[in-house]
Specification:
The chain is mainly α and 101 residues long. Helices cover 46% and strands 11% of the residues. The chain is built from 3 helices and 3 strands, in the order ββαβαα. It has a 3-stranded antiparallel beta sheet, covered by helices on one side. Helix 2 runs antiparallel to helix 3 (84-99). The longest helix is centred in the C-terminal third of the chain and has 17 residues, at 64-80. The two termini are 20 Å apart. 22% of the residues are buried. The model has no long low-confidence stretch (mean pLDDT 80).
Amino acid sequence: LAVSRGVLGSSGGVRVLVSAWTNVAVDRVLKKLGARGEEEMMRVGSAKRMDKAMLPYIVQSANHGVDERIAEELKAMLRETRDETDTAYIRKALNDVRSGA
């Protein structure tokens, strides 16, 4: 699930909700929006299953327990990945969760 505002050069603040059967499909839409200059996006879902490039857009909760769960999931992902690009995305997301960004 993803939400984006102001897409496709619209100055009217159009909001778009993307929902798909697979995480890959949602991530593809967000990547295409990002390629068109959209930066105000939110990504909801399992961090482990989403494209690592989408981690900066993951929605964090005001609930500390949820943030801890996300942090633990990200730490597990760091242990499992061998891809340098994915590692950079995961580390940034983990730092963001820890800092409350």
